[in-house]
Amino acid sequence: MRVVFIGPPGAGKGTQAVRVAEHLGVKQLSTGDVLRQARDRHEPIGLEAGKYLDKGHLVPDAMVVAIVSDRLAKDDCAKGYLFDGFPRTLGQAEALDDLLVDCGAPLDAAIEFVVPEDELFNRLHDRGRSDDSEATIRERLRHYAVLTAPLAEYYDNRGVLRCVDAVGTPDEVFKRVCDALDDIRA
Ligand code: B4P
Q: Where on this chain does AMP bind (predicted)?
């Protein structure tokens, strides 16, 4: 299956992506993880990305699309993949569609994680990553509302969107995501 996870910061995309990719037997890619690793290793792309990550801003589309494009070209994506945190803008979604036309294999599912804002704050505050300060969380939620939330309509119009209530234990959310994917496959 070819799947993307969308949803606000702290919704649990990364938590579920590892399990769901294993369940589906597909490659998982978290653009956030790739960017943070590149930053921590002081790679040129990471030093540039770090300027955005630490302020809670989205990294420019061209940088993220280049990472995904490289990844998609690898053999281990041939039987499917799960992108966690990508796309995050309409520009990224359109770029992904273009890449998939080249591969001849359209997206099967976009899973939107739905979590109320106060719960997001609690989760991120407890996680305590360097971009989880209160001011940065607010900035990330603001960017999410403006830049990422419109993706739900984009994928709904293509008939591949499923919204999942992501409040509950990780096991409960995992089951709901699997049910949503089964529903798409049925
Ligand atoms: P990401 O790395 O994608 O992370 P996130 O949105 O903060 O969190 P996620 O939803 O994965 O939540 P998690 O499972 O960790 O993005 C970070 C930054 O990278 C962005 O702000 C941006 O700057 C940059 N970036 C990434 N992709 C980009 C792109 N495509 N374009 C441009 N910029 C990009 O869970 C959060 C916490 O909740 C954890 O502590 C977890 O343990 C907890 N949790 C999870 N599920 C739970 C549950 N069911 N109940 C209670 N707690 C739960």
A: 31, 36, 57-59, 85-88, 92, 129, 140
